[in-house]
Specification:
The complex is a heterotrimer of chains A (371), B (171) and C (82).
Chain A (H helix, E strand, L loop, with lengths): L11 E5 L1 H12 L3 E4 L6 H13 L5 E4 L3 H13 L4 E5 L1 H6 L1 H9 L5 E6 L13 H4 L7 E4 L3 H18 L3 E6 L7 E6 L29 H23 L10 E4 L6 E5 L4 H13 L4 E6 L1 E3 L3 H5 L4 E6 L2 E2 L2 E2 H7 L6 E4 L9 H12 L6 E3 L2
Parallel strand pairs in A: 2-3, 2-4, 4-5, 5-7, 6-7, 10-11, 10-13, 13-16, 16-17
Antiparallel strand pairs in A: 1-8, 6-12, 9-11, 14-15
Helix pairs in contact in A: 1-2, 1-7, 3-5, 7-8, 9-12
Chain B lengths: L1 E9 L4 H14 L3 E6 L9 E9 L14 E4 L12 E5 L9 E5 L1 H7 L3 E2 L2 E2 L2 H12 L3 H12 L3 H14 L1 E2 L1
Parallel strand pairs in B: 1-4, 4-5, 5-6
Antiparallel strand pairs in B: 1-3, 2-3, 6-9, 7-8
Helix pairs in contact in B: 1-3, 1-4, 2-5, 3-5, 4-5
Chain C lengths: L23 E5 L9 H5 L5 E3 L4 E3 L9 H5 L5 E5 L1
Antiparallel strand pairs in C: 1-4, 2-3
The chains are: A alpha/beta (371), B alpha/beta (171), C alpha+beta (82).
Chain lengths: 371, 171, 82
């Protein structure tokens, strides 16, 4: 059996998990410094990078640290000196480096981090949801969420370009296991990134203090600038989208043109949901999806353009509601909100079909948990 | 067209490697493909599944396969209740099923080719050969896939895969 | 409040009959066994107990790791391929 199915694209095809696709993208980005601590399900990313550094395929310093907090501290220091930097983590690892995530964003240093998004204990669970990466929302990071290994590859390369232009660190989210450990066909594009740029560099011999204690309105101004620049990064993401796989910029609009019902989601589980949307479309239901490729900057404009019937399906909660449910309704639209798939609880095409059917039939509560 | 395959095996027998080899071979023949382990702790000897999807269109779903078209069983002692159209067995003889049954003594082929680790026959090579035959994947694509996935270890494995590809029988 | 996701008790066979994972079976030669109890203490699965004239292994759950063979000072345990 033969087909032309995957032959339309140029570039070398490889069967890669999203973990492996990210490692390939990082190889192409040629970072100067990588520092990471292993944690399931992210570990294969940095294991592969360590192999590349070990074999000489990648000319970078791989710093083996004793914790994720130290990993981000190393990244912070190296970035300060002008190095292109990368790290990866998940779940408790991200929780452990949380303090340094604030430091690097507040210091306006470009950096790229992959997050294989996993639940946070307790109860103990190694499987996927979006609880960990959503905790970055307030730090000032750019937060992207890929749907496929191809997008994970493209977004990681875009992350370096965007982060280094806007001086804001960039997190690339991939769903634990369903993406991190699922091998798919990926087209490896040999992108040439611009040289490392950043707002400032601190080198030995320079007589300056970095992040000395502030008084008065200094912190207020710095936070304001970061917030404004984070919003402005949307333009850079949109502008560079076609250099990195043309995935749609801040959002992907799936069958939304004539839609009367819109589903808002993010992450790797959107693929199963799209197949369910196709099933409903076949039955004549005008339903589509707004897939949030970015949580920060939040795609407010795209949300405001949605039809009036909106369902937000969340994989992380704050209180009884989903986090994206709150974010979406903050744009001034009415939403129904479902929290589902915590701790890797499988939500497949059939589950999405039944959920969307209930939504379209007007039988959903304002907030529901799919248990 | 979408073919969904579930592999039933034991941790350490090479089920995940088999999924990757076959998905790579399908990719080389122009298909979109996906190889997925059963998510969770890796435990030697425990029953585990691996999944393959092959399609002429982009594959978007990533949830585990629930209703496989093809079932691959590495160990006859694993009891499986399924309505799959095609069964592929590691067994010297077939067992009765409503679907088409492919069978090959993969353990013997693995042992003959020295594919043994800590007392376990590593079945990824011969089972890849048998499944490739059943799915109409060409031997040349299988060979290229095995070299891509296994690197320098591929030669011995490919010999075992080729043998299984050639001797696999079906009902 | 449902505490079952948080507080659980060990139960027999919560992972099924893990004896099916085994590819080497520990076999005890009773004549050589001094009933010192080393294997009982070291068995990571807790499936060895004192028997009549030697020790008894619960093969429903023994995974065949071979720790018992390693710690047996009398060399009374052999690992036999299944």
């Amino acid at each position: 059996m033969r087909t032309e199915g995957n032959r339309n694209d140029s570039g070398i095809k490889k069967l890669l998990t999203s973990n492996e696709a990210i490692a390939e993208a990082v190889r192409i980005a040629k970072p100067d410094v990588i520092a990471a601590y292993p944690i399931t399900p992210q570990s294969p990313i940095v294991e592969r990078l360590a192999e590349m550094v070990g074999s000489g395929e990648l000319d970078a310093s791989f710093v083996r640290v004793e914790s994720e907090h130290s990993a981000m501290a190393v990244i912070h220091g190296a970035a300060t000196a002008g190095a292109r930097v990368f790290t990866a983590t998940s779940s408790h690892g991200l929780a452990y480096m949380f303090e340094m995530c604030w430091w690097i964003a507040g210091s306006r240093l470009p950096a790229v981090m992959a997050v294989a998004t996993r639940s946070i204990g307790a109860p103990w669970n190694i499987h996927g949801d979006h609880t960990d990466i959503m905790s970055l929302r307030d730090t000032g990071w750019i937060i992207g969420m890929a749907e496929s290994a191809q997008e994970a590859f493209d977004m990681t390369l875009q992350a370096f370009a965007v982060s280094e232009e806007v001086n804001i660190p960039f997190a690339v989210g991939i769903d634990a296991f369903t993406m991190s450990h699922t091998a798919e066909v990926v087209e490896i594009r040999d992108v040439r990134l611009p040289e490392r740029r950043q707002a400032y560099r601190i080198l030995p011999g320079m007589e300056v203090a970095v992040n000395a204690v502030t008084v008065g309105d200094a912190r207020m101004r710095a936070r304001y600038d970061l917030a404004v620049d984070l919003e402005k990064s949307a333009e850079v993401i949109e502008r560079t989208d076609n250099e990195f796989g043309s995935h749609g910029g801040l959002v992907e609009k799936y069958r939304l043109e004539d839609a009367e019902y819109a589903v808002v989601m993010a992450g790797g589980w959107c693929g199963d949901a799209k197949d369910a949307i196709d099933m409903l479309r076949d039955e004549g239901v005008k339903i589509g999806m707004l897939r949030l490729r970015f949580i920060r900057p939040f795609p407010e404009k795209a949300v405001k353009g949605l039809p009036s019937e909106i369902l937000v399906v969340d994989r992380a909660n704050t209180g009884i509601r989903g986090i994206l449910g709150i974010e979406t309704s903050s744009c001034g639209v009415e939403v129904e909100n479902v929290v589902a798939g915590l701790g890797g609880l499988d939500v497949d095409v059939d589950n999405f079909y039944r959920l969307f059917r209930k939504f379209v039939d007007g039988k959903l509560e304002k907030v529901e948990w799919l248990i | 067209m979408l073919i969904e395959v579930t592999i039933y095996c034991r941790g350490g027998q090479g089920g995940v490697t088999t999924a990757r080899i076959l998905a790579t071979a399908a990719m080389l023949q122009g298909y979109y493909s996906q190889a997925m382990p059963q998510f969770g702790p890796e435990r030697r000897g425990a029953r585990v599944n691996a999944y393959i999807r092959i399609s002429d269109r982009l594959i978007r779903r990533r949830s585990p396969v629930k209703k496989p078209d093809v079932l691959v069983i590495f160990d006859r002692k694993i009891e499986v209740d399924s309505e799959a159209e095609v069964l592929i067995l590691n067994s010297p003889e077939p067992f009765s099923s409503s679907g088409k049954v492919y069978y090959v003594d993969a353990t013997e082929i693995a042992e003959k080719n020295g594919l043994v680790n800590a007392g376990w026959a590593i079945l990824s090579a011969p089972m890849s050969g048998a499944v490739a035959r059943a799915l109409d994947i060409e031997l040349s694509a299988l060979k290229e896939a095995m070299y891509a996935e296994l690197g320098t270890r591929a030669e011995k494995s490919f010999n075992a895969a080729k043998e299984a590809y050639e001797v696999v029988k079906w009902t | 409040m449902d505490l079952s996701p948080i507080i659980s008790k060990a139960t027999v066979a919560s992972a099924g009959e893990t004896g099916s994972w085994r590819n080497y079976r520990p076999a005890v030669t009773a004549d050589l066994c001094s009933k010192c109890g080393n294997c009982i203490l070291y068995c990571p699965e807790g499936v060895i107990s004192e028997g009549g004239d030697s020790v008894e292994i619960d093969y429903r759950f023994c995974k065949g790791c071979g720790v018992c063979k390693e710690v047996c000072e009398q060399r009374a345990i052999e690992m036999i391929p299944e």
